[in-house]
Design brief:
Layout (H helix, E strand, L loop, with lengths): L8 H12 L6 E5 L6 H13 L14 H7 L6 E4 L10 H11 L9 E5 L7 H12 L5 E7 L7 H4 L3 E4 L5 H10 L8 H10 L4 H9 L2 H16 L5 H8 L4 H17 L15 H8 L4 H17 L6 H17 L2
Parallel strand pairs: 1-4, 1-5, 2-3, 3-4
């Protein structure tokens, strides 16, 4: 926790300025794509606010009693609010408990920090209850909300927060960090470089992709997608298999393949492909398709992204997408 990620440097300057000017925001909303380390930056800011002897660069010392309590995960003034179970939301009961807890004074003389991650997992009831924390701030309390989907949050919540957006770093920064990362094995680096585009430039996501063998899974899915295009596999049968896989990843992959197919119609854009390793097969496929049909399927994928977080049957969702993809290729 004592070292900043290289692409966080500018964001930390902004946060350090809050501390040095003693203008700590009552509520801070940190946004950015998945895999950019939003939680880590929020934690570093929180620990710096709790630290009794911060370093010259504003980061926590790591040695005072507050830092030791944070490391032991027993600091009474650092409160983490997150879904109680994977895939679940942040319920109103959790927010009501937080409100009661915030009526008490912080136990230390610095600040009390509440981190809500991911904030978009608050439902309407819990978000409305959370407004009480924003509208009636308690003594020396800082609320940090983290999300990669700020549009999901109510406008009433967003308007009461200072905003900090973590930008996607340039590819050179990502590659350099991955090459020098102690958690990245030397034999993984070539694979990691191939995952940078797949992870949309998010370094931590690229690292997860390697550890979870995501690139291999994506390649298998692409081969299946091509088999459907060539009428070699049934879209209904594949949808039955695919609904068991991570839905958001599949929708993103299919969207990226579709965008790349559209770019193949315009050679000047080939350098910006999401999937440069698939360029040859995508170009070959694009020669058999029409732009109008690709745009229609693209619209369906955008709608599918919104439907993933609902109670809609995922298998039926993938059937609709894959059948349209099958029909698009059928007359070719």
């Amino acid at each position: 926790m004592t070292e900043l990620l290289p692409w966080h440097q500018q964001s930390w300057v902004h946060l350090q300025r809050y501390i040095t000017q003693q203008r700590i925001p009552q509520a801070l909303l940190i946004t950015g794509n998945k895999g950019l380390g939003k939680q880590q930056l929020a934690q570093q800011f929180a620990v710096a606010l709790l630290c009794a002897s911060p370093q010259n660069n504003g980061l926590a010392c790591g040695q005072c009693s507050s830092c030791l309590l944070v490391n032991a995960k027993t600091h009474p003034d650092l409160i983490q609010i997150q879904p109680e179970e994977p895939g679940k939301g942040i319920g109103i009961g959790q927010i009501r408990s937080l409100i009661i807890r915030l009526t008490l004074k912080p136990q230390f003389e610095t600040y009390r920090v509440v981190i809500v991650n991911p904030a978009d997992k608050m439902n309407n009831a819990s978000a409305n209850a959370f407004l009480k924390c924003l509208e009636e701030p308690t003594e020396r309390t800082v609320l940090i909300l983290i999300t990669e989907k700020p549009s999901v949050l109510p406008a009433t919540v967003i308007s009461r927060c200072q905003k900090l957006t973590i930008a996607i770093p340039d590819k050179e920064t990502v590659i350099d960090w991955l090459d020098n990362s102690p958690v990245c094995k030397k034999e993984q680096r070539d694979v990691l470089h191939g995952n940078v585009c797949l992870a949309q430039g998010a370094p931590l996501l690229a690292l997860d992709y390697v550890n979870e063998q995501t690139l291999s899974l994506r390649n298998d899915c692409f081969d299946t997608w091509l088999a459907i295009a060539k009428q070699h596999k049934s879209p209904v049968m594949i949808a039955e298999d695919w609904h068991k896989l991570p839905g958001s990843a599949l929708i993103f992959w299919m969207t990226s393949w579709l965008i790349d197919l559209i770019k193949c119609f315009y050679p000047a854009q080939l350098e910006s492909l999401y999937n440069p390793d698939l360029q040859g097969r995508l170009q070959e496929l694009s020669q058999r398709l029409e732009l109008k049909g690709l745009y229609k399927l693209y619209d369906l994928l955008l709608v599918a992204r919104q439907r993933l977080d609902t109670q809609l049957n995922k298998q039926l969702l993938f059937e609709e997408i894959l059948i349209q993809w099958h029909e698009l290729n059928r007359s070719k």
